[in-house]
């Protein structure tokens, strides 16, 4: 727990990417620990509601109080470190998504903790109401609610219990109700702390909205630039293909012309060779040699 609940490290000590990711890993572990603590707290809630023996109940409550205090400190420390991490991540697209994911996972853990505490508070009030009705069955719903909610109701509750015929049972019920009332006060304090953490985290989000919008705008510009580049590349490829096709057509035409000229020369040469004896003979007849 020392590394998880200690001071800011990693990204807080340096701005390097390695330090940043080291801090991200530590915060992931911290959130995992918070979730594990919440599960243990939920199990202890169930045990506290079902323990009959006062010694066992007292031990369960001490364990629950220590674990709740540890989790509260871890929540506060993690919230501070995530806020620092998000401020350092800023508009860096390689860091901001990591910080945003941690923020979301941490808030999910806080929501889970709130639900666990609220469920425990509701079940505790139900148990208090049952205990009150045991010794005062004629109590109205309003009287039961008053006895379970505020300090003045506790005084009324104790007076009514001790006036009953079953004083031993009444005293036992009174002690349990008082213990449950104290538990509810602790739960309400925890819920208020969680709500304050949520408010602080949301305030950070509000302050960083312009930065996030800037990141989104840059992301859109990058996408547009990539699309434009791909379009230009496609056009360039098509032009290159067209040039290659024209080049091949030109080469083919040149080759055909060359072949035609070669064939023509061959035919002309052969034709001239055949005509040469005839021309010589005709020349002899027309111009006979002198005697």
TrEMBL record:
Its main location: membrane. GO terms for biological process: exocytosis; intracellular protein transport; vesicle docking; vesicle fusion. The keyword Transmembrane applies. The keyword Metal-binding does not apply. InterPro entries: SNARE (IPR010989), Syntaxin (IPR045242), Syntaxin_N (IPR006011), T_SNARE_dom (IPR000727). It is a single-pass type IV membrane protein. Residues 174-236 form the T-SNARE coiled-coil homology domain. Residues 17-77, 187-232 form a coiled coil. One of its GO terms (cellular component) is endomembrane system. GO terms for molecular function: SNAP receptor activity; SNARE binding. SMART domains: SynN, t_SNARE. It comes from the Eukaryota. Keywords: Coiled coil, Membrane, Transmembrane, Transmembrane helix. It is found in: Membrane. Belongs to the syntaxin family. This is t-SNARE.
